[in-house]
Amino acid sequence: MNGNGPVVEVRDLVKRFGDFVAVDRVSLTVGRGEIFGFLGPNGAGKSTVIRILCGLLEPTSGSATVGGFDVATQSESIKRIIGYMSQKFSLYDDLRVEENIDFFAGIYGVAEPQRSVRKEYILDLAGLADRRGTMTRLLAGGWKQRLALGCAILHEPPILFLDEPTSGVDPIARRGFWDLIYQLSEAGHTIFVSTHYMDEAEYCHRLALMYRGKIVALGAPEELKRSLTSHHLMDLESSDPLESMKALRGVPGILDSAVFGGGLHVAVDDPAAAAPRIREALAARGIAIRHLEPVLPSMEDVFVAMIEQEERRAA
After folding, report:
1. Separation between Cα atoms, residue 28 and residue 202, nearest integer Å
2. 75-106: buried (b, 16+ CB within 10 Å) or exposed (e) per residue?
3. Distance from C-alpha of 212 to C-alpha of 196, rounded to nearest angstrom
4. Are 139 and 253 part of one and the same domain?
5. Cα-to-chain-centroid distance, residue 254
6. Would 314 be classed as within a structural domain?
7. 309: which of 61, 157, 179, 229 is 20 to 30 A away, CA to CA?
8. Rounded to whole angstroms, how far apart are CA atoms 221 and 126?
9. Do residues 95 and 196 both lie within one domain?
């Protein structure tokens, strides 16, 4: 691997399945030690890009390199320098925890003298040292997830691809998993992670928002929030959120409203002018306002706005 330049570099990548374009001219770069997030709904093309970068799928056109190796011609070299973890975890339920580690150590070609050291490191990292003899099928989802990550880094790969790794586990387990990702990033690993959980985008150094095979936005989370200049947001808590949405339709200066938590996020063109109009529209329907003030957009707000912009462009 070249010590300089990006670790992952993608240029105008396209993947077609028949007439269906799963990946549409995607371009991006990822630097060493970076946690790069791929955010988007199911079917956006995230997993397809990751499989191409892992050497599991050939691109239709465009180019991509991982660790300096070309995905189209050097896929076997790529597989030696990456770790890959999918949402299915790829574990063997009929093996004990340490038997899974031993098995993957063999698969990844970890040298015999290093295996015991690597196994103890993985057990410690995953917090599974006292469960090494437990049958894997008896582990809760969060522990299986930690074990799967540990197995993916047994051979100390400099680059990790995590494809929807937190799907199906509870929020506490997800937070703990991200703590592990930060540890690996600080140790110098480059981590490429896909997710459809909006809150996880906040944990990434940079991220790409994907929709219908395209990258619709790319940057650091705070940078993307600041870029949403077309939407000013008001946080509204009222006695009836759904009726509030109906009441705000057609009100001048109100661009959109969407459920957010227990209230609404209302997109407006001018917060100072919109506030009295919102109060007036809700009062006319007998709806009480508990809270109304401008707020910074969340990643969910950014993503919704970008999708709407893309839809308008397509129309």
Report:
1. 19
2. beebbebbbbbbbebebeeeebbbebbbebbe
3. 14
4. no
5. 31
6. no
7. 61
8. 28
9. yes
Domain around 72 = 8-225
Helix (H, G, I), strand (E, B) or coil at 135: strand
Amino acid, res. 135: M
Q: How many helices (H) and strands (E) does the chain have?
A: 11, 14
Do residue 151 and residue 250 come from a single domain?
Answer: no
Confidence (pLDDT) at 274: 94
Q: Are residues 142 and 260 in the same domain?
A: no
3-state SS string for 60-107 = CEEEEEECCEECCCCHHHHHHHEEEEECCCCCCCCCEHHHHHHHHHHH
| Total structural domains within the chain | 2
**CATH number for the domain including 77?**
3.40.50.300
- Please check whether residue 38 is in contact with residue 211, taking contact to mean a CB–CB distance below 8 angstroms: no
Q: What is the DSSP letter of 7?
A: S
46/196 Cα distance (integer angstroms)? 10
CA 300 to chain centre: 12
pLDDT < 70 stretches in the chain = 1-4, 89, 230
- How far is Cα 315 from Cα 313, in angstroms, rounded to an integer? 5
Rounded mean pLDDT of the chain? 91
Both tokens of residue 266?
């209302």
pLDDT digits (tens, 9 = 90+) for 7-43: 999 999 999 999 999 999 999 999 999 999 999 888 8
Of the chain, the percentage scoring pLDDT greater than 70 comes to: 97
Among 187, 185, 224, 184, which Cα is nearest to 206's? 224
Report yes or no on 311 lying in a domain.
no
At residue 35, the 3 state secondary structure works out as strand
CATH number (domain holding residue 281): 3.30.70.100
Residues 42 and 196 sit within 8 Å (Cβ to Cβ): yes
Report how far apart, in Å, the C-alpha atoms of 187 and of each of 180, 193, 270, 308 are. Answer: 11, 17, 45, 39
